[in-house]
Structure formats: structure tokens, C-alpha cells
Amino acid sequence: MKFPALLLGFILVCSLGIAGYIHTRRKQELHLNKQASFLDIKFRVTRDVLGEYEDQLIQSTTDIEKSTKEVDTLTKDVSQVKTLVAQKKSDADNCKGEKKRLTDEIAAAESEKKRNQDEFVKGKSQWETEVASLKKQLEQESTLCKYIDKTSEQGRKLCNIIEEPPKEAAKEAAKEAAVDKPKAEEKKVEAPEAEQPKVKVE
Prior knowledge:
Blueprint: H1 2-145, H2 153-158, H3 167-179, H4 181-190
Helix pairs in contact: 3-4
Region (Disordered): 166-202
Keywords: Signal
Signal peptide: 1-19
């Protein structure tokens, strides 16, 4: 009686132990399944995140390459602009120097023009004075020549008579003067009015 009871008890205890073990393993399996499911979800999320990161990295790399090209282009443009600015600055400096030179030349030309105008006015005044003096002298000489014997050398000099008769004409004039001398003396006696103006020739 004891043996079957002990065997039954042993079997019952073993069954309870096996049931407990199975229950424990079941719990472990559920836990591991949950953990595996969680890890699978985490892996999928991580994979998606990594995919997004890869896409972002590719996009960023593309943007960086594009930006690098733009930076290179802008650097070249800036270099060209700097060169152009330097050239324009040099041209501006040259223009300033040319402007200063032209300003100096204009000022010198204005000064020369003013000096020439002053000299012209002064010379004109002198010439006008001299012309007036010569006119006055000419009028005096013309008035004086009316009473001067133009056949004499001094008379011709005073009246500016330069032309001289040819030698043959002078000889003939001398012969006629010798022949007509008495007639000339008679004419002088008949016309005493010619002796009235007395001119002193120096």
C-alpha cells in the first residue's frame, strides 16, 4: 500500500515539477518572443532610420558637391571681379592724374591767354598811340609839304619823295632850266605871293 502511494505521490510531484518547468519555460518563451519581437521592431526602425540617414547623407553629399562647385565658381568670379576692380581703380587713378594734368594745362592756358590778352591790349594801345602820332605827323608833314620846295633834296626827304628822274631826263631838265631861267626869274617877279610862307628846314 505504501509503495503505490509513494509512487503515486512521486508521479504527482514529478507531474507538478514538469508542469512547473513547462510553465516556466512557457513564460521564458513568451518573454523571448516578446523580446525578439521588440528587437525585430527595433531593428526595422533602426534600419529605416539608417536608410533615412543614408538618404540624407547622399543628399548632403550631393549638396556639398554642388556647393563646392558653386564656391569654386564664386571664387573664380570674385577673383575676376577683384582683377576688374583693381583695373578700374588703376584706370580711375590714371583718369585723376590725366584730369589734374588737363586742369593744370587749362590753368596754364588761361594764364597764357590772359597774359597774351594783356599784352595785346597793351600793344594795341601802343600801336593806336603810335598810329595816332604818325597820322598827326603825316598831317603836319602834308601841311608842311605844301610850302616846301620838292625839287630840293631836303624837301624830298621831308616829303618822302623817293623817285628820281632818269639821267637823260635830268640833263634835258637842266638844259631847259638854263634856257628858261630868265623866264623863271620873270615869273618870280610877277608872283611874289610864293615867297610869303617862310619855312625853316633843319
